[in-house]
Amino acid sequence: MVEQVRLEGKKILLGVTGSIAAYRACELVRLFVRSGAEVRVVMSEAAKRFVTPLTFEALSANRVLHEATESWDGDMNHIGMGEWADIFVIAPATANTLNKLSNGIADNLLLQTALAFEKTILLSPAANTRMMENPVTVASMKLLGLQRTEIVEPQTKLLACNTIGKGAMAEPKTIFSISLKHLFEDSYWKDRRVVVTGGGTIEKIDEVRYISNFSSGKMAEAIVTALYSKGADVCYITANDPVSIPPVHVIKVESAAEMLRYTEESLRVAKKGKLTKPSFHSETGRAEVVNKVPWLFMAAAVSDYRTNHFQNTKLKKSALGKKWSLELVQNPDILRSVEKSGIKSVAFKAEMDRDKALEHARKALKEKKVDIVALNILEGSKSFGSETNAITLVTEEKEIEIPQASKFEVAFSMLEAVKTL
């Protein structure tokens, strides 16, 4: 779902420093440009030894700011670039850059731009493990984390110096994902704890067979992505392996019973106040306790039944015979079972009978005691796994139609709508 995010009207400033990982910044530019954002690049002189400014100009369709192009006839300077941008992403950020930036040293154009930048700076370090773990660098990263800066943790893998360790630049897609919460921050959703369930649960018959459904989990992933983009603290409980989501807390489950257990536990945690980190830019400088009503988005397709007798081996066809009857029992209804006091809840309901869909949604609203039902009318099994969706938000007082669009756009529209319900 991350690839579906549209950034039209957003202005991204990318800083590139002198690291062998500079070539990966090219992929990051492509991700932002493909999403519709306008991208401009500022390079340190050391970075030009690895990738030429011409490469970034070709990818971004904008002139690159470096020593030879700096001009005060317009905004091609460290002040103008910062005033233009919505976010400043420095990727890769060398250990040298991290240590200078934490101490306010601005001896090159990129650092001057960072020092003058008043919004969020996203730093993606890339350096040899020993340089990253040097106490000076560690202290610099802690100091930067208390300012208008977010650190995208480097990866542990084989580095350019042919050693395995922590220091490789984060994946461009990860950097792109993390930038979303700074570009779409919403005061209503920021730091609000939200539990989302998704995917089709699995009920084992034996060790090789199971009962499930066609749910792809794409709508749930779109909701997770939209919530993360808005600044929410998201816990995603899923029966499917996530395909493309931001770095949120994921709990992988199989059965309805597991999903119920983890949903109950996650909601208990969500109802507790969230302690935020202290900031030099807050009025008091102290940590702040945020108490916002949590939300539950129940987008999972939970199997209605499970086998009454699970076999912890493989059942042989020869032993089963030509006919095989399974004895099934009902699974617990998760939405009915969980304690919903102190939270807002959204139940997703798929229907194929268009004439009675709204009636069934209103019935679910009362029976499951939820605040909102997100009604989705399917056109058969072909509806599963599609890239688009259309839903109707049903409450006791009204219905809100969200027309056909990409699942991310539908999720985004839904989050805007439910704030007022």
Overall radius of gyration = 25 Å
The CATH superfamily of the largest domain turns out to be: CoaB-like
| Reported CATH architecture of the largest domain | 3-Layer(aba) Sandwich
User: How would you characterize the largest beta sheet?
Assistant: 8 strands, mixed
Secondary-structure class: alpha/beta
Q: Looking at the structure, what is the overall shape?
A: elongated
CATH fold name of the largest domain: Rossmann fold
Helix content: 25-40%
CATH level 1 name of the largest domain: Alpha Beta
Helix count? 14
Strand content: 15-25%
Kindly describe this structure.
It is a single chain. This protein has 421 residues and is α/β, with parallel strands linked by helices. The protein folds into 2 domains: 173 residues, 3-Layer(aba) Sandwich (Rossmann fold); 233 residues, 3-Layer(aba) Sandwich (Rossmann fold). Helices cover 31% and strands 24% of the residues. The protein contains 14 helices and 21 strands. Strands 12-11-8-15-18-19-20-21 form an 8-stranded mixed β-sheet, sandwiched between helices. Strands 2-1-3-4-5 form a 5-stranded parallel β-sheet, sandwiched between helices. Strand 6 and strand 7 form a beta hairpin. The longest helix is centred in the middle third of the chain and has 15 residues. The chain starts with 10 loop residues before the first strand and ends with a helix. The mean pLDDT is 91.
